[in-house]
Amino acid sequence: MEPISLDNLIAYQKAVLFAGKTIKLTRYSGLRDHGWICDQIRRAALSVPSNLAEGYERRCGKDTSRFYRISLGSCAEVRAQLKVAIVSELVHAHEVESTINDATEVIRLISGILRAREKATN
Hints:
By secondary structure, the protein is mostly helical. The chain has helices at residues 10-28, 35-58, 61-87, 93-121. The protein is elongated.
């Protein structure tokens, strides 16, 4: 059986879309006027698919899981930063709500991969 291509993994596909959507959000929403938080959000968003890709290509247990966990943490970081931006009145909730929901979905998918990997090693 051939291994699944990275591009066929739903978590990776959603992570790429999430990162692109998040970067666009920082360019066109109320966030664009706040470079300091935009830079941090962009870096964290880009880290999500990047670390999934790096972990996938390493194909060895602990390294792969470590990169997947970094990806998970970066996604949670973006979600938290967007919530802080709402509370700080840098952006309106309606501007970022769907991106926060996307982050939650990506976190759920990556968590599922990590659980499956843990089960497979036990």
